[in-house]
Amino acid sequence: MNHLKSDVVLPQPYLLFLGDTTEPGYAKTAFGLRDWAGERCVGEFAIDGATVTTGLPSLTPEQAATMGAKAIVIGVANAGGFIPPTWWPALVRAMEAGLDIVSGMHARLRDIDVLRDAAQRLGRRLIDVREPPANIPIATGKPRTGKRLLTLGTDCALGKKYTALALARAMNARGVDATFRATGQTGILIAGGGIPMDAVIADFAAGAAEMLSPDAAETHWDVIEGQGSLFHPAYAGVSLALLHGSQPDVIVVCHEPGRERVLGHPGYALPSIEDTIDLALRLGSRTNPRIRCGGVSLNTARLDANAAARVIAHESDRLGLPVADPMRGGDAFEQLVDACLS
């Protein structure tokens, strides 16, 4: 896939660092790299207290280095994007083993004295991928050539990135010229480029979305990774900026069956799929009056195959739209791709 070029060539392969994470939803960077760039991951490394695992081999930094690892990647995307002091000794150990550090957190590696001093002493690199490009313009709202698809969600961490990657891959498999456009740290690590939308100054966020999906051939599709949720009490701003700036022709709404409360904000109930579609189409029509919903992507990872099939069929009948779990594929997913391209 084509993509925005990164200014830094990332050292690979990776050792995935899970810290002391206990919430699987916060380890989405590690899971994303495992699922979409598994050939670049030698294993995982966690510290005391961690209960989350990717299922990759558990390795010390020293073992990973002997297996050819070049960097340790912080595989966590916690609320606030901070790097707690409890992680610092493990990250220093990784540098002592010969690994660079790659991070997509809001906190900058170079701003942590312990890590910066160790990197200078050991000759290691501290690479922050959550760095937006310079000179992002204010959004114009002007139509652009080409076609665009944006994934939106009823919440965070439920499949917007996976859905966009799967749709772009399926389009390419059909001979359609499609590009996955990464908007978060995990997507950037997978694709090798993109814009970390949540690190862009608010006034320029819609402009960054325009920059991410520029004019293209009429038959070309940009498949844009969504962020947050239009209903999220903290992250709705980045979701709306992506919606206005990307000017999608098609949206696909992502949801996890059974999730009832906003991740990290249990005082808020999740919006319905219908309300999410309705709000997205009303707001998105501001910059693209032709916007439509191609269908719904369900994250059924917590369900067995039979239960997933029943939920997918039921929701499709109820909503009158194609519904699929892209990670399960099958006829339902092919129908979703058909609807997006139609």
UniProtKB/TrEMBL annotation:
InterPro entries associated with the record: DgcN-like (IPR011669), DgcN-like_C (IPR035086), DgcN-like_N (IPR035402), P-loop_NTPase (IPR027417)
SUPFAM superfamilies for this protein: P-loop containing nucleoside triphosphate hydrolases
Domain spans labelled D-glutamate N-acetyltransferase-like N-terminal: 53-132
A family per Pfam: DUF1611
Superkingdom of the organism of origin: Bacteria
Protein name as it appears in the record: DUF1611 domain-containing protein
Family matches, as Gene3D superfamilies: NAD(P)-binding Rossmann-like Domain (3.40.50.720), P-loop containing nucleotide triphosphate hydrolases (3.40.50.300)
Start and end residues of each D-glutamate N-acetyltransferase-like C-terminal domain: 138-330
